[in-house]
# Entry
Amino acid sequence: MNRDYSFENAARCSATSKRTRERCKAPAVRGWTVCRVHGAGGGAPKGKANGSYKHGLYTQEAQAERRLLSKLVQVSRKVLSGF
# Structure
């Protein structure tokens, strides 16, 4: 029987074993270089959707707001020191 399965022709996962130094033989997920076991499509959701979300102090928005406020204080001190 000559069956042509697409996963047989798919690119293979690029992950390697630390112990044997052999590459994973699983097919890579389309658009990724690794298989689903080795992290393709992984990652936690951002913000409150993540189960580890506590308070938002270190979110990108909060950090950007603190940088802006710091720059504003720095500029205002520079302007006020000229008087």
